Amino acid sequence: MILFISIATVLYLVLMVSFTFGYNRLKTNDNLEAEDIKVSIIIPFRDEEENLPKLIMDLKNQNYPSNNFELVFVNDHSEDSGLNILEKLLSECSLNYQILYLKESFGKKEAIRFGINHSNGELIITTDADCSMGKYWIRTLVGSYEEEKADLIIGPVKAINPRGILQKLLSLELDSIIAIGGAASGLNKAFICNGANMAFPKTLFNELNPYAGNIDLLTGDDVFLLYKLKEKKNKDAKIIFLKSELALVSTILPTTLSALINQRIRWFSKVKRYRDRDSILISFIIGIINLALFACFIGSILGLFDPILLLSFLAFKWLVDVLFLISVKNPRIYKNLFISLLLSIIYPLYSIGIAILSIFVRVNWKGRKIS
Questions:
Q1: What does DSSP say about strands 152-154 and 239-241: parallel, antiparallel, or unpaired?
Q2: Please, which of 46, 188, 267, 312 could form a disulfide with 76 given CB 3.0 to 4.6 Å?
Q3: What's the CATH number where 235 sits?
């Protein structure tokens, strides 16, 4: 067991040092010069009546020529009053928009594909109906696209006003995931992205057909696009993490434990389809450090190990994680050192627990069963 812990420790330390190097290779890009590229923003939605007004306000306030971007909303069989709210809000502003309806199909991937097929822009930007963004969001993404000639731009995402211990834990987890994703792209090993903030050429999406073979999964619209791009272009794929506060999108976090478990099992359901080597290797290293911590925790309870071993192991991982977040200049880490320690203690139990639950539990997403 000590050997396993030692191996896990060394691998995790090497990984996090590599991530620190990768993130600091990224350059900040606040290019606001571009404004001539035609953009289509694809927004699938289902039962989002509470969130659509804020989103429309943020899109209305964008500092980008209104004649050069369109909003493509795709209604995925909403059952609330969100569609009526959306139609009313859009009719009262001067934005270019389409409201499309899924009829014979359903799911986020189908909605995105349908929206892109009916879009008119050169550059596709995707986001979610429960997100908000600053006024330079479109302009910054377009500026990066024009300057870098990228195949895929991965934008930063953070939590909207986390409240209470649960949301603060999830907010810090999200910060870590986004930073790791950026760091991996800095190493040319991109393995994770977030559909709440992505941009790519329309022609590329049509060329890749990214949802072939995984359309039955109600999640993974973002990473399967990334993996298909890497599979097709290999080392020639230009994948950029946009390191810019101006490009930041904020998203709503789960507010209850049951909502969190539902979400994470839903996310975990796509893992069995992963074929990307970078994703498999990074997930393996993160998985074994959590498995080692979990085993150490159980062993300490059963009296098989000295509790000092567990405390030392936890202190090591917490320190490595905190130093990584400090190195990527995350300003929220200094206010959340206790939260980061709590996350380090809880995360191994939580991640292993979700993996086990995903084998036996079917969850719901807005009334739909996910196997």
A1: parallel
A2: 46
A3: 3.90.550.10
How many CB atoms within 10 Å of residue 43?
A: 25
Q: Are residues 17 and 148 in the same domain?
A: no
Residue 191 and residue 184: Cα distance in Å, rounded?
7
Amino acid present at 340 = S
pLDDT for the residue 370: 60
Asked, for residue 262, whether it belongs to a domain, the answer is no
371 pLDDT higher than 60:
no
Q: Tokens 């986001």 label which residue? A: 127
Spatial neighbors of 370 by CB under 8 A, at least 6 apart, are 218, 219, 265, 266, 269, 362, 363, 364
Structural domains counted in the chain: 2
Contacts of 86-94 with C-beta under 8 Å, sequence gap 24+, read 86/45, 86/52, 86/56, 89/52, 89/53, 89/56, 90/56, 93/56, 93/60, 94/66
Phi-psi region of 77 (alpha: psi -120 to 50; beta: other; left: phi over 0): left
Q: At what angle do helices 307-327 and 164-186 cross, to 10 degrees?
A: 60
What confidence tens digit (pLDDT) does each residue in 88-132 have? Answer: 999 998 899 999 999 988 899 999 999 999 999 999 999 999 999
Where in the sequence is the domain holding 330, given as residue range(s)?
2-21+276-370
For residues 57 and 61, give the distance between their C-alpha atoms in angstroms, rounded to a whole number.
6
CA distance readout (Å), 198 to 127, 165, 241, 361: 7, 29, 9, 31
- Residues 145, 38: Cα–Cα separation, whole Å: 12
99 and 196 co-located in one domain: yes
In Å, the largest CA–CA distance within the chain is 68
Give the CA distances from residue 89 to residues 52, 60, 83, in Å, rounded to whole numbers and listed in that order: 9, 10, 10
Name the token pair of 20: 């620190």
Give me the half-sphere count of Cα atoms (radius 13 Å) on the Cβ side of residue 209: 2
Are 186 and 329 found together in one domain? no
Phi and psi for 69 in degrees, rounded to 5?
A: -145, 145
